Amino acid sequence: MKIAVYCASSLAIDEKYIDLAYEVGTEIARSGADLVWGGGKTSMMGAVARGARENGADVIGVIPERLISVEFADEESTQLHIVEDMRARKGLIEKLSHASITLPGGIGTLEEFFEIWVGRYLGFHSNPVVVCDPFGDYQPMRQALNHLKSVNFMKAGQEEMVNWCSDPATAVISCHSNEVKL
């Protein structure tokens, strides 16, 4: 099994987020799964890869050529796919993985999360979609989503396609317990 992780590459974040990403990578490896991620070695992106790699998992990075110098491609990856653009990155990450975990992050992380969630709803894949939010960073967004649901902008069944949790072990277990057999 391969688990995709979407997370931040920002260098300006609190160290607790770096530790969280490392722990998620560690839990992925402990579960016997491998990591698929954005291929960067900085910030949370680098930490999730280090956690997985240092605990025995393969780490499969996917990075657009244009971002190699920005996110600093992780040359220690088991596999490092260099693609043309962000659309190709997201598509290949989705194709290579069997589940996804979204960690706290900015607009890029959110864009990846929403695309994978919508893809699941529309039937382009049936992979588990998990959000690990131990510090409550996504609580305001969840309130906004609840509002959208209350005014009927969210359709029946959409909300249930995302498993929200607050710790790395539960996030990884959720990926395995909802594992889609290919």
Q: How are the SSEs ordered, and which strands pair?
A:
Layout (H helix, E strand, L loop, with lengths): L1 E5 L8 H16 L3 E4 L5 H12 L4 E6 L3 H5 L6 E5 L2 H11 L2 E4 L4 H15 L7 E4 L6 H12 L11 E4 L2 H10 L5
Helix pairs in contact: 1-2, 1-7
Describe this structure in words.
The protein is built from seven helices and seven strands. It has 182 residues and is of the alpha/beta class. It has one domain (2-177): 3-Layer(aba) Sandwich (Rossmann fold), CATH 3.40.50. The chain has a seven-stranded parallel β-sheet, with helices on both faces. α6 links the parallel β6 (129-132) and β7 (162-165). α1 runs parallel beside α7. The mean pLDDT is 94.
Please state the structural category.
alpha/beta
Helical content (DSSP H or I, runs of 4+): 40-55%
Q: Rg from C-alpha positions? A: 15 Å
- Strand arrangement across the biggest beta sheet: 4-3-2-1-5-6-7
Q: Biggest sheet: strands, sense, closure?
A: 7 strands, parallel
Extended strand count: 7
| H-E order | EHEHEHEHEHEHEH
Give the termini distance in whole angstroms: 10 Å
Q: How many individual helices?
A: 7
The CATH class turns out to be Alpha Beta
- Average predicted local confidence, pLDDT: 94
Q: How many separate domains make up the residues?
A: 1
CATH architecture: 3-Layer(aba) Sandwich
Beta strand % = 15-25%
Instruction: Classify the fold: give the CATH topology.
Output: Rossmann fold
Overall geometry comes to globular
